[in-house]
Amino acid sequence: MNDINVVVLAAGNGSRMKSTLPKVLHNVAGKAMIDWVLDAVLPLKPDRLITVTGVGSQAVRNHVGDKSRFVTQEVQQGTGHAVQQAYPELKDSQGITLIMSGDTPMFRSESLADFVEEHRRSNNTVTVLTAHAENPTGYGRIVRADDGTILKIVEEKDASVTERRIQEINTGVYVFDNQLLFEALSRVNNDNVQSEYYLPDTLDILRTMGYQIGAYQIQDFTESLGVNDRVALSVANKIMRQRINRQHMLNGVEFLDPDNTYIDAQVQIGQDTLIEGNVTLQGETVIGTGNHLTAGTRIVDSRLGNDNVITSSQIEESEIGNLVTVGPFAHLRPKAVLANQVHVGNFVEVKGAEIGEASKVGHLTYVGNATIGKDVNIGAGTIFVNYDGVHKFHTNVGDRAFIGSNSKIIAPVEIADEAITAAGSTITDDIEKHAMGIARSRQTNKADFWKRMPHKKDN
Ligand code: UD1
Ligand code: CA
């Protein structure tokens, strides 16, 4: 008797997005809208969770995976018609059914739980979640009688001039008595401007049948934001990021310019980390405590320990220990692993390489496919030549080795502990412990060469 079903509508073509990507797969703060919706309803522990897919069905299903069951709406004939597709899955349920749209990513789980609770307390056959909108454009309007009871919902396109002035909007979230939901849906027609079967029409139908219908207004309009186009998407992103940043601040992370700091939903950050403006943290990134990320830094799917300073640099799929300094303008590409106290300086690129404790790669260097030991110094302008156009080759550099500036290290080579390369060398052979590899041609000076040079007359 007490069971709860959830239906998420995600079959529409989202034409107003003007995108090849199905609307519900567009990201808000790095997480697809459909995932925000599903993650908000999962704590309600639904007995059945059904997502209605249609346009881009396969892409949506692949993305969602086994979080939800699915039904298909082959032709998009409106939200009422979409819910009807779930009938085979729900026909035996004597419980209640929460319906949501896949394009309303802002609802908090707590607000939905309160709403369901409110419905259970009432004797309503259906309760609709409403909100007060400063600008109600685009939403269905809640039409109430003089005594305040709800009569019906009218879509903007079908609304009279007076109805369009109503600021109470339909958030697109409802709880229905499951059996009466489908009873009402069977009576919905498509006699409206869009020739669609509107889910909101079920309220008027149930009321006319003599059932009690109700409306519950959410406090914060921003939770009910529906994303139909890129303008609304940018608003949703902005509000979601403010929410995320605020939570990090409450957890002890310091922001210099939270309005211009872009942190994805899943990112974790330890306390006393200082984040300057225009920093972007994306994907499954984990940042420890006491780090300092300066303006312009972008970190994607990476893990940082504690007390690192990242100065205006790009870091992707990499791992950094503690007390590391990176940048300015360094680029850590996938599988860069920096041990504690490493320094990677300006205009350095590291890819598929481990750099051991306290080693330094200060300037204008490319380290690719290498294992570098501890306390190694890599001079300016060093290139690890790791690619022949087809294969990648690996280089090992031992502890305390000293790589002279402008060395070219043609992989694969083994440079032993405490080995040295002479500046300007092109290293093609292994270097044993304590040896210096030098590979450059001798300098010769041509005496009196100045005199053979052409000179301008007045010089
Ligand atoms: C809908 C409501 C409107 C409400 C608003 C809240 C209707 C008729 N209107 O309008 O009252 O204020 O949401 O955000 O319900 N969908 C399908 N199949 C369809 C049509 C739509 O699955 O045939 C899905 C869409 O993918 C979307 C959701 O239903 O996730 C809502 O559809 P949309 O076209 O965005 O409705 P709105 O115009 O926003
Ligand atoms: Ca919508």
UniProtKB/TrEMBL annotation:
It is found in: Cytoplasm. Residues 1-230 are annotated as: Pyrophosphorylase. Its cofactor is Mg(2+). InterPro entries: Bifunctional_GlmU (IPR005882), GlmU-like (IPR050065), GlmU_C_LbH (IPR038009), Hexapep (IPR001451), NTP_transferase_dom (IPR005835), Nucleotide-diphossugar_trans (IPR029044), Trimer_LpxA-like_sf (IPR011004). The keyword Nucleotidyltransferase applies. Pathway: Nucleotide-sugar biosynthesis; UDP-N-acetyl-alpha-D-glucosamine biosynthesis; N-acetyl-alpha-D-glucosamine 1-phosphate from alpha-D-glucosamine 6-phosphate (route II): step 2/2; Nucleotide-sugar biosynthesis; UDP-N-acetyl-alpha-D-glucosamine biosynthesis; UDP-N-acetyl-alpha-D-glucosamine from N-acetyl-alpha-D-glucosamine 1-phosphate: step 1/1; Bacterial outer membrane biogenesis; LPS lipid A biosynthesis. Binds 1 Mg(2+) ion per subunit. Acetyl-CoA binds at A380, N386, Y387, S405, A423, R440. Residues 7-197 form the Nucleotidyl transferase domain. GO terms for molecular function: glucosamine-1-phosphate N-acetyltransferase activity; UDP-N-acetylglucosamine diphosphorylase activity. The active site is at H363 (proton acceptor). Residues 231-251 are annotated as: Linker. Residues 252-459 are annotated as: N-acetyltransferase. Keywords: Acyltransferase, Cell shape, Cell wall biogenesis/degradation, Cytoplasm, Magnesium, Metal-binding, Multifunctional enzyme, Nucleotidyltransferase, Peptidoglycan synthesis, Repeat, Transferase. Its EC number is 2.7.7.23, 2.3.1.157. NCBIfam families: glmU, PRK14354.1. In the N-terminal section; belongs to the N-acetylglucosamine-1-phosphate uridyltransferase family. Homotrimer. Catalyzes the last two sequential reactions in the de novo biosynthetic pathway for UDP-N-acetylglucosamine (UDP-GlcNAc). The C-terminal domain catalyzes the transfer of acetyl group from acetyl coenzyme A to glucosamine-1-phosphate (GlcN-1-P) to produce N-acetylglucosamine-1-phosphate (GlcNAc-1-P), which is converted into UDP-GlcNAc by the transfer of uridine 5-monophosphate (from uridine 5-triphosphate), a reaction catalyzed by the N-terminal domain. This is Bifunctional protein GlmU. The gene is glmU.
